[in-house]
Amino acid sequence: MSKKAHGEATKASHVPLGLFTAALFSLIFIAIPLVYLLRRALEGNWRSLSALLFREKTAQIFTTTSSLVIIVSLMASILGVSLAWSLHNVKIPMRNLQQALVILPIAIPSYVFTFSWISINPSISGFWAAVFILVLSTTPYVSLAALSGLRRVDWSQHEVAMTLGLNPFRTFIEITLPQIRNSVAAGTLLVALYVLSDFGAVALLGVDTFTRSISNLYRGSFDRSSAAVLALILVLLSATLIAIESRARGKARQSRNSARLLKQPILINSRGTKLAAQILIALYLALSLITPMGLLLLRFFNSAGTIDYPSLFSASISTIVAAFLGALISISLALPIGLLVLTGSRLGNLADKGVLLVHALPGIVMGLALVAFGSEFPWLYQTLGLLAFSYALLFMAKSVGSVRSALARVPQNLIDISATLGKSRAQTFRAVILPLAAPGVLTGSLLVLLAAMKELPATLMLRPTGFETLATEMWALTAISRFSEAAPYALFLVLIAAIPTFLINRPDRGSNEEGDIA
Amino acid sequence: MTSLEIRDLGVQFSGVSILHNLSLTVESGQFAAVLGPSGCGKTTLLRSIAGLITPAAGTIRFGKQLVSVSSLVLPPHKRNIGYVPQEGGLFPHLSVFENVAFSLGKLDKTEKAPIVEEMLNLVGLSGFEHRMPQQLSGGQQTRVALARALAMKPAMVLLDEPFAALDQALQAEISEEVAALLKRTKTTTIMVTHDREDALVSADVIALMRKGQVVQYGSPAEVYRQPISADVALSTGDVVTLPAFKDEGEEVTSPLHMHSFDLQPNGDLLIRPEEIRISLEKLDKGVRAEISKINYYGHDALLELKLPGYPIPIRARVAAPLDFTVGQEIYAHVEGPLRWVPRKATHQ
After folding, report:
1. Does any domain span residue A9?
2. Which residues of B touch A419 (CB under 8 A)?
């Protein structure tokens, strides 16, 4: 009953004017890319657009893109769940370390993966190469979600099932899997979104998906509205995925039972299972972490004498500065929205949906939209500010999500007590809510920082002239097959991106919330 | 300290009525316990007093000040109420000192220190200023929460099942301490609880709640000894309910008064198990009974008695040491004033 009372009490209270204004301001910023994308698309001449829309090539792009999305999602989810199960249930040596390592490939952008494999074998290309590389780089999204799902399953249910005569395999299928299904679904949908918006891997491997075709149209023709039309189709596709994802996520949240201390599994110690699990994990790590990292290191040390250090350092600084600015803007736009969503007001619900819409914009589309926006405001076009703004919008869903869950985790109880102790709402916000939500808000900023460092397509389109980040330097050198020169940039990018990855998964923070890093 | 007066309070959530026509008065300096099963609305009552929810109807007064009437509701931070929720609700990011000083606002640290010291001294936790809440035991957390509530010199203190999370031995000790402290400082206190012993031991007055209303109000002895129904009687202790007949001469007859009771009952007799007396010899009152079961508790025991001609065994409390055996025949009678309630008034 008291829970119900909390809900009512919060809902009944009105939204303070300052918060309302701040959130409205954020919402207007969020609307910019969508508005400009639509304008660009509608500018074009309708006949040529419909020709573009209904030509055979478009159907081919659609088929290639959706096959890639479906195959990679399926394979990544099977691999991810197997890895998570092995890490959670089997008594392997240095379990915590191995768990951390399996998540680490998240710090490696898909184009760096592709680069490292291409530099081993330059003839790698095509659809199945893209499947191979994207499965390797997206599996951690599923492993992470499945692991946090598994941590919430009470082992005593497993024990009861065994006493009722189920063997371990059937117990997993009938008891455990249904309980982690929602987490796995959420992780898999993240994989699907990643593949849909990926640009680096498909571009390097010559696979004609929407992102590559948009980029080609944008660079190759004067009619930029064609690119915008393809971009709109892509947005529609990813919006569909996001709608499914947010629904799956909602269900996964409901099943959470945080109050009770759950019984953790008794680890499987049979030699056969241990060996199989260890081989699986080792194989994954060899392909996804050791090969690319080893290769980058090897190339780096082989060419140590010829490395252009000044440009390497300036690109590192540029990467950090742009990503940092992006994270800063993102979190300042996200805070009022997160607060507003929690008040349950109508504008709050609208803001919630609005954030999801921007989330549906892949990097290449965001680049396209903001180029259109910037072309009307020449003083903005190709500035660091606009680039950082694009990062902020691209990863807004991450920051709003973190801010929201951090704020929601502040117990209502403490807010009530603060009120009875004579603090006004503004005072309570400063003295209780903000300090308690700070770690979550910080995680949100780190997530944006990490994503912005790895971002490629929007950076290529929006960076100021002469402003090179690690990603763009590496990209330019790979495009002309100068692999040895590209390697140091890739290595530095992975090393710098590993810092926020490590901070987000800090071992002393205990188990992660599902999908935190995603 | 101030008195509390609630008149015809009504609270609704999404159309469901949680409290209706609830009235309650607590004198200044009194310790009142609100006792009732979970879901009866006692926490909602407390939150209405604190101003954390907006009632649909009724008035709440602190002394002469009207704090809640229809839509005009004084916000919680202007009510000067000390609220101690379950498990204390200490701010996890603040030290004990900062928690206790939380309500002291703009005072600077040198002004806060003596107040915090006095409060911690009061709850027996001097020297704990620099601990963090996670470093305290459950009982210590409750006491710090109380110190925090008292530091603001509140008009009254509200306790929401403050001891429910503590283990049983500690519960008795802390609740006794807290009650003694609040009475010593003449603090008007409203404590919500579902633990009948807690209420009986600590409170000056007890309000019994059922389905969103106060159904009985009085001193612990009154509500224990004169329950208005079997249901209400159960909330303050064990009760034996026997069918009974009351004639025009106010004479009450039950299976404990008459061998093979065969009258048409027009009411129920409510008896506390300790009011049933056992004797080995036949007295001029009482009936013969057989001991069918013994529940031994150490300090006392409950005997289950089978009365002739009455199908349901009844329970009698006897003090230790125990020299009865199962199957033994004894004589039983009721001692003390009889509580007879007419049939339609009972809830059974």
Report:
1. no
2. 51-52, 75-77
pTM recorded for the entire structure: 0.73
Domain end position, chosen among A260, A286, A301 = A301
Contact B78 A422 (CB under 8 A): yes
State the Cα–Cα distance between residues B333 and B289, nearest whole angstrom: 10
Write out the two tokens for B232. 């209400």
Domain boundary among the residues A280, A301, A322 is at: A301
A44 and A143 assigned to the same domain: no
For B7-28, the pLDDT digits (tens) are: 999 998 888 899 999 999 999 9
In a domain, A516, yes or no: no
Domain housing A235: 55-301
Same domain membership, residue A357 and residue A406: yes
My answer on whether A270 and A199 are in the same domain is yes
Among B64, B62, B60, B3, smallest CA distance to B28 is for B3
Three-class DSSP labels, B113-141: HHHHHHHHHHCCCCCCCCCCHHHCCHHHH
How many domains would you assign to chain A? 2
Residue A143, CA atoms < 13 Å, CB-side half-sphere? 26
DSSP string, A94-152: THHHHHHHHHGGGGS-HHHHHHHHHHH-TT--SHHHHHHHHHHHHHHHHHHHHHHHHHT
Interface test with B, best of A413, A421, A430, A441 (most B CBs within 10 A): A421
- Other Cβ atoms within 10 Å of B122 Cβ, number: 17
Instruction: Please choose, from the candidates A36, A134, A92, the residue with its C-alpha nearest in 3D space to the C-alpha of residue A375.
Output: A36
Q: Are A240 and A351 within one domain?
A: no
- CA-to-CA separations, A71 to A66, A82, A106, A135, B122, in angstroms, rounded: 8, 17, 19, 9, 68
* Phi, psi dihedrals of residue B160, rounded to the nearest 5°: -105, 100
Residue of B19, B47, B107, B132 to mutate, interface with A, max A Cβ within 10 Å: B47
Please judge whether B76 and A414 are an interchain contact, meaning their C-beta atoms are less than 8 angstroms apart.
no
B95 DSSP 8-state letter: -
Q: Which residues of B touch A8 (CB under 8 A)?
A: 13-14, 53
pLDDT beyond 90 at B214:
yes
- Asked if ipTM goes beyond 0.90, one says no
Rg of chain A (C-alpha set) = 24
CA distance B62 to A381: 63
Same domain? For A342 and A387 the reply is yes
Same domain as A48, residue A186: no
> CA A6, B214, B54: angle at the middle one, nearest 5?
30
Same domain, A393 and A416: yes
Measured between its terminal Cα atoms, the distance across chain B in Å is 42
d(CA A328, CA A321): 11
pLDDT tens sequence across B23-80: 999 999 999 999 998 889 998 999 999 888 889 899 999 988 888 887 688 888 888 8
Q: Which domains, ranges and CATH numbers included, belong to chain B?
A: 4-235 (3.40.50.300), 238-345 (2.40.50.140)
Q: ∠ at Cα B178 (B176, B179), nearest 5°? A: 65
Long-range contacts, A124-131 (Cβ 8 Å, 24+): A124/A205, A125/A205, A125/A206, A126/A205, A126/A206, A126/A207, A127/A64, A127/A67, A127/A68, A127/A207, A129/A205, A130/A68, A130/A201, A130/A202, A130/A205, A130/A207, A131/A68, A131/A71, A131/A72, A131/A75
How many whole angstroms separate alpha carbon A428 and alpha carbon B347?
46
- Residue pair B228/B306 in contact (Cβ under 8 Å)? The answer is no
Q: Are residues A156 and A277 in the same domain?
A: yes
> Does the residue A449 lie in any domain?
yes
Instruction: Tell me the backbone φ, ψ of residue B163, rounded to 5 degrees.
Output: -110, 5
Please answer whether residues A213 and A64 qualify as being in contact, where contact means their C-beta atoms are separated by less than 8 angstroms.
no
List the CATH number of the domain containing A28. 1.10.3720.10
Is A6 domain-assigned?
A: no
